[in-house]
């Protein structure tokens, strides 16, 4: 096919829609047929696919032979046509010598007999003999082995006419091999989570402000929605199999189907998101950022101390004066990429756009507020909140917290005021009492949770979605206390008793609650592409347990409601650092 001869329009629109509930040899499904029927309906009612050009295969019709016959029948199409293939059913993955091989399971397929399945490469090879310039595969099934290319940077623009005159083979799949596809769970009550969000996008929610809907924008929309759906345990992946055109689904007045394109449109290009490579093993991780910035050895006196943490502190009232005091203890969180996937941060743009950025989600675990000030270096951008003192004509400042983002993808977050503080024991009207360093249990855990999703959002801006290492650090933990337990009633209608009577510190009753470690550190490996609320909660519970043990808590974590793993978000204050 010569792309120069392609016209900026579609001549014919065809689709093959497959749904299988009643499998002969494997477990049945409940919603695959209704998913297929819903997709076929919206193609004809909203997207101008002629009914006679949409082939629907349900249950017994969707044999291996039937699917391949219907697919290869598109060989008779012309070069200016478009083809959409939708499959709702089981997927299968087999590990081969050169990587994973993905299969679709037809109604008569047997997973133990691969000759009865449809290997993914058989569809892609078949697509090579189909003249249609644009083919879009939409697979509501989980399997691996997709040889997808990664698109360019986000933020560029292309003309629709250009996309229509270039070949493309694109695919979106509901999840990877080790993720269960939700059979149902959408708001419609009759569709899967993946297809439910797909239908919303096709109806127009994924279109841009001009009413233009491309396959890439649809896939980007579905990716975002499924990845954060509270009922979802899957993360879609999408990209180009071949070519650099883009399947056009909607345009104002359907001008992509008319003889003359008429008005052209510029649309933003978005990066493809193929399934990321596997996370490196523990032995392969090289702590480059941690080693350079003081986070390697929590038994070292200089742990967590670098040129930026040296700026942390506060102004304390000392009689008639306020004295600058350097921080002695703080929360430090570090995220560092552990795969060789390219990180592509635009630091200058981050400095302009992220200052004081507010959360775009109303979910409490995503409520991370960026600091209000920003400075840049040759390889990093640092956002910080500060406190300023003017005295005797001199200006002085300290930092309460900061976020440092390096061009290699490492992110450091240090918080003094939000998660750490000082309390006083043995207080009398004449004496302020003995200072005791404290960390706030609920605030520490809430900030770890918030930061984890903030790091995911930041790294997605750099087109990175593979594995990261998360380090949770309490710098200066020695002899500190872990205070602030959940006060909310648990499932047993009980709440935690607060053991901290600070006057009791004078007779040593707080000794068993003090941390014995010089500094605290806990390490986790996180797959960003599959990180949703359920996955993050497992990590958060584990982190809370380890933190509690460091302070001799021999019960379930007291930052959760008594006897549960329910986090008291009503007690968490994401803005405490501003006070």
Note the main sheet.
Answer: 7 strands, antiparallel
Give the strand line-up of the largest sheet: 17-18-19-20-16-23-25
> How many domains, in number, for the residues?
2
What share of residues is helical?
A: 10-25%
Mean pLDDT: 85
Q: Assign an overall shape.
A: elongated
Give start-end ranges of low-pLDDT stretches.
278-285
Content-based structural category: alpha+beta
Distance between the termini: 65 Å
Helices and strands, with pairings:
Elements: E1 13-19, H1 32-45, E2 54-58, H2 64-72, E3 82-88, E4 91-96, E5 99-104, E6 118-119, H3 120-127, E7 134-142, E8 157-159, H4 160-164, E9 168-175, H5 193-205, E10 213-214, H6 215-228, E11 237-243, E12 248-250, E13 266-268, H7 288-292, E14 313-318, E15 321-326, E16 330-337, H8 347-353, E17 373-376, E18 380-391, E19 394-406, E20 411-415, E21 420-425, E22 434-440, H9 441-461, E23 467-475, E24 481-483, E25 520-527, H10 533-550
Parallel strand pairs: 1-2, 1-3, 3-7, 7-9, 22-24
Antiparallel strand pairs: 4-5, 5-6, 8-13, 9-11, 10-12, 14-15, 16-20, 16-23, 17-18, 18-19, 19-20, 21-22, 23-25
Helix pairs in contact: 1-5, 5-6, 9-10
